[in-house]
Amino acid sequence: MKLEKHLLTQPEAILFDWDSTLVSTFDVLKQSINNAFAHFEMPLWSDEEIRQRCQLSAKDSLPLIFGERWPEALEILTKHYRTHALTLLEPLPGALSLLQMNQRLNIRMAVISNKRGEILREEIKSLGWESFFEVVIGSGDLAEDKPSPLPVHHTLNEMGIRAGINVWFVGDMPVDWQCAEASGCLPIPIGIEMKEAKNYPQSVENCPELEKILLKT
């Protein structure tokens, strides 16, 4: 489902991914995953490897990486992440302004992330952003995580909204766009890290660009 930017009309709702979409958490994620690798004396990953191979939730991705020892890896990773995340958590440039504008325009918002639900809600609360989002769904909150369409179907059901191109899913990873397409919503790739984003004419580089597009709809 692709639309040129100039054909976009104001959405009824926007579903946001969290990490590297609204906030910067990549550095602490990189430190945490490589800390687990170091514990098991495994080769560390580059930035590109982390972006490509850490799109799924921990419960879906870690068994593929660590095999039977994945619960131990999860404990190590989570402990390191929770120790450092809130001190390093920063909104991406223009993210707060974008959320405030959506609120003024009465565009309803939710967050769907593959980060563990309790950690996701801690981070949203630490920024004081709870009032922006009607629904917040993280990994473990439902039976399936992205790219399954289940989190979107659940979220829209809670909001009383039907899926369609009037619902935008803004995210920085292919797993987000796959989830959007599987659920019948409009994927809006954000960021310049993933080359696959160029396949979508409605992709944007950052939050300020998305805000400008919404002001024109």
Provide a descriptive summary of the structure in words.
This protein folds into two domains: 5-24 and 90-216, 3-Layer(aba) Sandwich (Rossmann fold); 26-88. Helices cover 46% and strands 14% of the residues. The chain contains nine helices and seven strands; from the N terminus they run ββααααβαβαβαβαβα. The protein has helices at 26-39, 47-53, 58-66, 70-88, 95-104, 117-127, 150-159, 174-183, 207-216; strands at 13-16, 23-24, 90-91, 108-116, 135-139, 167-171, 186-189. The strands form two sheets. A five-stranded parallel sheet has the order 5-4-1-6-7, sandwiched between helices. It is globular. The model has no long low-confidence stretch (mean pLDDT 92).
List keywords for this structure.
alpha/beta, single chain, 2 domains, Rossmann fold
Output the structural class.
alpha/beta
CATH class of the largest domain: Alpha Beta
Arrangement of strands in the largest sheet: 5-4-1-6-7
Mean pLDDT: 92
What's the shape? globular
The CATH homologous superfamily of the largest domain corresponds to: HAD superfamily/HAD-like
> According to CATH, what is the topology of the largest domain?
Rossmann fold
Radius of gyration: 17 Å
Order of helices and strands: EEHHHHEHEHEHEHEH
The first-to-last residue Cα distance is 18 Å
Which regions have little confidence, pLDDT < 50, spanning 5+ residues?
Answer: none
Number of domains: 2
Helix content: 40-55%
Main sheet characteristics: 5 strands, parallel
Percent range for β-strand residues: 5-15%
Please report the total strand number as a whole number: 7
